[in-house]
Fold this sequence. Notes:
The structure is a homodimer of 284-residue chains. The first copy, chain A, is an alpha+beta fold and 284 residues long.
Amino acid sequence: MRLATIRQPDGTTRAAVEYNEQWFQLDVASVSDLVTLPTWRALASAAINDSTAPRLRLSDATLATPLPSPRKIVCCGLNYHDHIAETGRDVPEYPTLFAKFGDTLTDPYAEINVGADSQKVDWEAELAVVIGSSLRRATKAEAEAGILGYTVANDVSYRDWQARTLQWFQGKAWDATTPVGPVIVTADEISPKQGLAVTTSIDGEVVQSSNTRELVFDAADLVAYVSQFTQLSPGDLILTGTPGGVGLGRSPQRWLRDGEVLTTTIEGIGSLRNQFRISTTEGY
Amino acid sequence: MRLATIRQPDGTTRAAVEYNEQWFQLDVASVSDLVTLPTWRALASAAINDSTAPRLRLSDATLATPLPSPRKIVCCGLNYHDHIAETGRDVPEYPTLFAKFGDTLTDPYAEINVGADSQKVDWEAELAVVIGSSLRRATKAEAEAGILGYTVANDVSYRDWQARTLQWFQGKAWDATTPVGPVIVTADEISPKQGLAVTTSIDGEVVQSSNTRELVFDAADLVAYVSQFTQLSPGDLILTGTPGGVGLGRSPQRWLRDGEVLTTTIEGIGSLRNQFRISTTEGY
Lengths: 284, 284
């Protein structure tokens, strides 16, 4: 099943389920709200079978971030073998984790307006795991069963702010800078463990190209680990970290420039496409 | 004005305002909910003047965490001159920030049940700033005006988990381990800049003793800084960091033991009092 949150002409949003090249819209504001309903799968199936349900051709829909209001977003750093090599670190024994707020998320095709806030805007393509159950102290098997599905995120990072202190948070917490989507694909349809290609390109030039097989801690590992210390709930997000090829790790380093379009793709899910607006300063 | 969230016999909670040695209860579930109402000051005043408002003697009230559901909690590390000296670091140019989830908070007199999760449980007394306005890219003056008040927090840290990776989050994100309260004192009544004593004791032995004058970045500095990257809203919390005297910085290091009572006091606000339950292991 493929789920999305669709922006309506009046600015509100509705959750939708894809079937037969169309989005069937539900009477629920977003996938965040939908997946908190224990009967969400039945509701989605009913929408497909309801001849009066409002529907849209895929190409006519304006997609919003599928999960506008996760209660928790936990991000993992240093989790791809190739990215770890790039930073010169050892393969970690434990996942490196930090948190994001819901306001950090933005739409899958949103323009990202950096303005003069950062001169070192970097990209981090990430597989995002969508939680489907209430989980606390989950075993790996329970974590696996508690994964609702997967989506794409780009943990866009302001490296100048990130480098100001030991904690990465302030480089990764800018409102409306982490695009997510375009859709959520349920866990029965794709398998990151079997391997999904992860690609980032800038104006068509591929800068990250890896595969979810390269993950040190896989989706279920991370969900189980996080659930040791905090309750996870339907609609929460775990970002699994980024592969090699970020601007920080290149020689010379490379940052996003005004007008460039970042495309973030995960096989079997889809692509984010985000143009950046950055005020350049002298010497940039 | 002094505000609290009071636990009712049926398990629900209500916001309350203190007057004349009594808590006057409002028809709102918590201070989190109360302060999102633009008319909250008028409501609180009305409760004091309402002869039919349910009231409790201070000693009869069971206080819950005053802010059970902040949308955002941002914490600052390394922010007291004496604590920075203890860690051997330089005085920072920028605040070191990380985030917490609302589930991490617990009641001001709650028992904190560590179980076997950590063998290195440490204390961090902190002044917590309660946001009163919507703030984004606030100047220092706007930040100052946007502070609703102050409360006490203890950013109890599992140092074994905190040391697993470069990011502190997982040592500080355990559900129900950060006591907050007992009350919120509005900003017109106390001045951390003028100096408030901050004290932590374990079973009566003082382990932290400092003053909010020692803060490197004061409350308004932190609020203004955080608002550069994310929207702050009424009821959000900023934890301002801890002074010297934590267990990690002592020689030999000292961790909380099963049954010990941690008392965290800030002058003019009040005290948290939390007993710890910790499963000790051999060699501990």
